[in-house]
Amino acid sequence: MRRARNPAPVERSSAEADLLLREYSHRINNEFASAIGAISHAAARSGTAETRGALVAVKELLINYAVVHQALQMPEHRVRIDAAAYLRRLCRAISRSKLDGRGIELSLMVRKCPMNSKRCWRLGLIVSELITNSVRHGLGDSGGAICVELMLAGPFIKCRVTDNGKSQPVIRPGRGLEIVAALARGLGGTIDHEFGPQGATALLVFPDVEEMPSSQRKPMAFGVRRAERAVRL
Q1: Domain spanning 79-232: which superfamily?
Q2: What are all long-range contacts of 165-174, with beta carbons under 8 Å and residues at least 24 apart?
Q3: Number of other residues whose CB lies within 10 A of the CB of residue 221
């Protein structure tokens, strides 16, 4: 009688890490729900329209933060999803929670792009961090514009995030950019940053496959099929 194969230590470690990450995300979702419920209750009991309106605005802001968190949760199952639809949902929530109040316009240029859900999740984490960097280091509270593009380039997928801020070149990458670089490597791709007086650009290039040899991971010159026209969020 053949015995069942015991999972390798690496497989067990990965499964445990995934379980802990899902549990952590579940706890955060519960905290969001509790905070939103408490604010709703306070708004219903408030004595003035001004107070009620302020509490409702805070509740809506928290709801959009919760949507961002939910969009950035690691998927439980590996299925094919449309990366364009996923980025629309994510960027709309980011815009409503973080950008609208700062006078920052976020636009999206994407084309339908089927992708493994776990790879799409990594893409979302990268885009979210790049938008945060644009706000923190380039635009601040002065307003401006950020554009996210997703396009096909032969066997590669390209994602470009640009802003019209005035960020300085990063001499020593911070924790955020180190995480972005690690996520890009996890996709089998690379990411490059350009900074100038007219703004900053980050270009992520990764293969439209599950895995590929490291010798083929550098971006190559392909004719790019342009994305759809920009959609303001």
Answers
A1: Histidine kinase-like ATPase, C-terminal domain (3.30.565.10)
A2: 165/134, 165/137, 165/138, 165/139, 165/140, 165/199, 165/200, 166/138, 166/197, 166/199, 167/133, 167/134, 167/137, 167/138, 167/195, 167/199, 167/200, 168/137, 168/195, 169/195, 170/195
A3: 7
**Max Cα-Cα span within the chain:** 75
What does the pLDDT look like over 169-208, one tens digit per residue?
A: 655 567 778 889 999 999 999 999 988 878 899 999 999 8
Q: Note the pLDDT tens digit of each residue in 201-227.
A: 999 999 987 644 444 444 443 333 444
- Identify the residue with better confidence: 230 or 100: 100
Residue whose tokens read 């419920």? 37
Q: What pairs with residue 231 in β-bridges?
A: 108
The structural domains of the chain, with segments of one domain joined by +, span 1-74, 79-232
First and final C-alpha spacing in the chain: 60
